[in-house]
Amino acid sequence: MASLDQIAMRNTKSGKSQTLAKIAALTVVATVSTAAPSALQAKDEPLNRQDTIKAVSEQFSSVPTMSGEFIQFGPNGEQTGGVFYIERPGKIRFNYEKPAAVEVISNGKTVAVHNSKLKTWDFYPLDKTPLKLLLSERIDVDGDTIREVVSEPDLTTIVMGDDRIFGDAMITLMFDPENYDLRQWTIRDSKGKETSVMVFNVQKNVQIPGRLFAFDELAIRRRQQENSSGNR
User: Fold this and answer.
1) Which of 135, 5, 129, 21 minimizes the C-alpha distance to 80?
2) For the segment 181-204, what is each residue's pLDDT rounded down to a tens digit?
3) Which alpha helices (H) appear in the chain, and where do they start and end?
4) How far apart are CA 225 and CA 171, in angstroms?
5) Which of 52, 109, 121, 165 is the most buried (most CB within 10 A)?
6) Domain range holding 183?
């Protein structure tokens, strides 16, 4: 199993940025659970491509909720962190620690990026971001979104994308090869820029208040419009 220091070193070296870094950080998100029985073979006998995908998919479906901490390697290799909450399918929340004043929230349909310092909200359809792939209930073993599966002694990697929806953007999920716990993910945008997120201190199958994933997009947009009109 790769240590946090080893993973962090990999990211520091490849810490490219992207303009959608906030969404990438969401994009992400953490799947830590008890390994499927077949996955336990990984230490002594690597699984083939399809069995690896199946084991990871079983992890997804067995842990519908989780929370923990994260470190994000953003533009130019700088680091930010905070706490996250996930509820599959489709819901996630990232609270960045100070001095950042950012929250990233998905309510299952829309991803919202809220900057409380700048008093701004930006909205993105969940279905149009790679975050959708991370927040699915399971990975489709026979689906065409899986681009590559790589098994190494210290890391199992699955690369996913969909040209029809995300263009050239892709998400790379990195797992512990012994139990297929998700340790890290990297989002590459259509311009080739990357943002990586590492998760730790993960609690699985926890009760998460629904309010953490709630926001009133219509009311927020109305206020934004009113404020914009008032500033003219």
Assistant:
1) 21
2) 888 989 888 888 899 999 999 999
3) 4-13, 21-26, 49-62, 131-134, 163-166, 217-230
4) 34
5) 52
6) 4-230
For residue 153, the one-letter residue type is P
Report CA-CA distances (Å) from 220 to 93, 146, 169, 225.
18, 36, 29, 9
Model pLDDT for residues 129-158, shown as the tens digit of each residue: 888 888 888 877 777 889 999 988 899 899
Q: How many domains, in total, are found in the chain?
A: 1
- Give dist(CA 208, CA 67) in Å, integer: 8
Q: How far is CA 102 from CA 84, 93, 118, 194, 231, in A?
A: 12, 11, 9, 19, 24
φ, ψ of residue 213 in degrees (nearest 5): -105, 10
Task: Give the integer Cα–Cα distance in Å for 161 and 133.
Answer: 8
Which run of H or E residues covers position 157? strand 155-161
- Tell me how far CA of residue 226 lies from CA of 26, 110, 229, 231, 232, in angstroms: 29, 22, 5, 9, 10
Q: So what's the pLDDT on residue 222?
A: 93
Gap between the Cα atoms of 87 and 60, Å rounded: 11
